Amino acid sequence: MESSKSNRILKDETFARLPGLVSRGDLFPQVQEAVRCSARKVVVLDDDPTGSQTVHGIDVLTGWQVEELQKALLSGTSLFFILTNTRSLDAERARQINTEIGRNLCRAASATGVEFDIISRGDSTLRGHYPEELDALEEVLRREAGIDFDGQLLVPAFFEGGRFTIDDIHFVQEGDCLVPAGETEFARDAVFGYQNSHLARYIEEKTGGRVMAADVASISLADLRQGGPDRVCQRLMQVSGGQRVVVNATGYSDLEIFVLGLLKAEAAGKRFLVRSSASFVKTRGAVTQRPCLEKEEMELTGQAARGGLVVVGSYVGKTSAQIIAAKQIKTLQSLELDVHLLLDEESRAATIGHACNAVQQAIQKGADIMVYTSRALVKKDDVKGNLSVGQRVSAALVEIVRNLEVQPRFLIAKGGITSSDLATEALGVKSARVLGQVSPGVSVWRLGEETKFPGLPYVVFPGNVGNDENLAQVILLLQGKMAPHR
User: Fold this and answer.
1) pLDDT tens-digit profile of 437-460?
2) In this predicted structure, what is the pLDDT of residue 3?
3) Whole-angstrom Cα distance, residue 457 to residue 475?
4) Mean pLDDT (the chain, rounded)
5) So what's the pLDDT on residue 303?
6) In CA terms, which of 135, 173, 355, 357 is 20 to 30 Å from 110?
């Protein structure tokens, strides 16, 4: 267990003391060539929809039948996402889903002749079913495809969201400071809580001591910046027997060096499973940088007379602060849903019905409206009970959107589980194209023809991303009252 004493540090001062990067020119073209030469399709299993927050021009699937996977493997992009939504489920169901996807991927790969690498994309603040999901994938891929993985890589750095890994400690940026992740509200999550910010000790904690911290390898910033890809490759060539490896990073150049070394090691016969945030996904897929989306690129004009809808389910403090700021927008109506009323069977139907009517009327009249859950967290005595509360609340939000009779001008879904459930259960999404980001870490999907509202701009806004003003800024941008947030 880590000390209760705060280890908050100043970001700029800390970065200034880090090892300097040896000049290696423009690394990204080298990554693009290495990815092309590897010839493996990258398949990202996303435990909620927010993992697409660094990419553009990429497809997200919500199903994983063999035929769907065959088509995706043969597509022209370097990677694709499969939305598993396992963060809303218990560990056993998460294992089952990962096992099923792994089995179907092996069959799709056999039918198409396309090899693949898997990334398990999880929360950049270390919440989720780790190591259960990675362990399930390792077991099924060994059984179905005969792959013996040399190691499992943990790469949680997410720069757009202010998450950095330094000296094997994972930090979350708060203002000008970096706070060890284990000292943030995310570590106190009712379902996925943890104590350790030091990632080797986090792995020991999460594996219940099955993997000891002393047995975890590390790729340091000095390895990356002074040794370069050759040093990374050398370190990874020494990994075997499923050893866990922590990867440090504070910027994309670190990940570019790491990916070059990783692909060199894999070309020499090594194989690795990866648990990472969205920043690694972007680098491993060699996805190019692009500016944040303009309002015109989201094609809102087809529903110009309709109101937009914002649905907020996330309960973290960052989201609560963003709700307060968004409520200051004079052209935005707001409606709070009392979670206690949603959990009470006698009041649930009337509460949902009232919300349905309010949302429908606002959108028909051309008014933008935000529906959000009450901020007091309702906690139960065990993980199963806390998961059940989240599922009941999310089901209410799904019912509100499912009952909409007119298409809103846009839909913002705030929170990972909220955005997943709305996409799959309320809107019927089978496949969506990621257009890009409306703000750093906040993606916009274009929904397919099979959905309730074909072509709808769907904004996937993670609960733990952005400053207090970002939600309001995105709403104002969609209203045409603010320039894109670069």
Assistant:
1) 999 999 999 999 999 999 899 999
2) 44
3) 13
4) 93
5) 61
6) 135
What is the topology classification, in CATH, of domain 295-478? Answer: Molybdenum Cofactor Biosythetic Enzyme; Chain A (3.40.980)
**Which residue(s) pair with 82 in the sheet?**
45, 61
pTM of the entire predicted model: 0.91
Listed by start position, the domains of the chain span: 9-284, 295-478
